Amino acid sequence: MNVVIMGCGRVGAQLAMLLDAEGHKVTILDVDSYSFRRLPTNFGGAALVGDGTDEDLLRQAGTGEADAFVAVSPGDNRNVMAAQIAKHIFNVPRGVCRIYDPLREELYHILGLETISPTKMGAQLLMDAILE
Question: Which pairing describes strands 25-30 and 46-49: parallel, antiparallel, or unpaired?
Answer without folding.
Answer: parallel
